[in-house]
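Suppose a colleague, Dr. K., hands you the sequence of a protein chain of 306 amino acids and asks what its three-dimensional shape might be. Before reaching for any lab equipment, you can write down a predicted structure in token form. Begin with the sequence itself:
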Amino acid sequence: MADLKTKRKASEDFEEERYTLKKTNPVVKVIVYAFLVFWALINLFPIYFMFTFSLKSNEEIFGKNVIGLPHDWLWDNYSAAMNTGDMKLYFLNSVLVTVSATLIAIIASLMATYALTRIKWKMSGMTNSFFMLGLTIPIQAAIVPLYVLLSNISKNPVFGKAFGINTYASLIIPYAGFTLSMAILISSGFMVKIPYDLDEAARIDGCGLWGTFFKIIVPLMKPALSTIGIYSYLQCWNEFMFANVFISDSVHRTLPVGIKALSGQHTTNWGPIGAALCIATFPTLIVYIFLSKRIQESFIAGAIKG
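The predicted structure, expressed as tokens, is then:
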């Protein structure tokens, strides 16, 4: 036993020494920082190109000044993008659909995970497997069945106007449904590690099933909430296929489909299209900048708990 402790201590000292050597070696530092700077430039270049693209004219975009900074900074491209084709309405539609689908995914996944992991009932394992089956179904395979279903619902005089084709629900419900499996998988990794003693203590204090869920479980699931929220946001905000197939009118059109509509049949002014792309992309970047620490902590916590 003493020899084992000695070997383990020597191994830990060696690992610490090796890490310290790498940490203090100036050559390694230069190589690492040079690689990181190079990698950062590669990842930042598309953002730079899109932003400069949005401020150029067609002459600069096609040949005269493809990569460089604009000679004439055409900020009017942004006003043209917002005032052409009801882009303001499309932006608000995207916000409405994304926020609604994200809230539904968060609430439904937490409730489903609570029922699957902390309540004993028959068929819970099979139900969990059924939810996980959703991870294997590509979104492309569901377009035709969903379109047929929504078309039939549209013929119903009661539910057609609320849940049929060309409604917000025709996007919100499928978006939430397709993020539900991953959301349950994420929240399960957190919830199974919450001690059952907390549930028992809450029941002793008079909390029922709903009180235990909302007062005990939900506050402890904040890291999972941020992870599910950002995942659902990324899935819904940039989604194009469902929005293009299920929405044919301009009233319920979302931002990705609205950007596609800016392209003309014969001639296209590409500057406003670049501006619209920036308007669609920058909210995601801003969200990540302000929530990057929380997102990283939640993913690390989920990896440890899972």
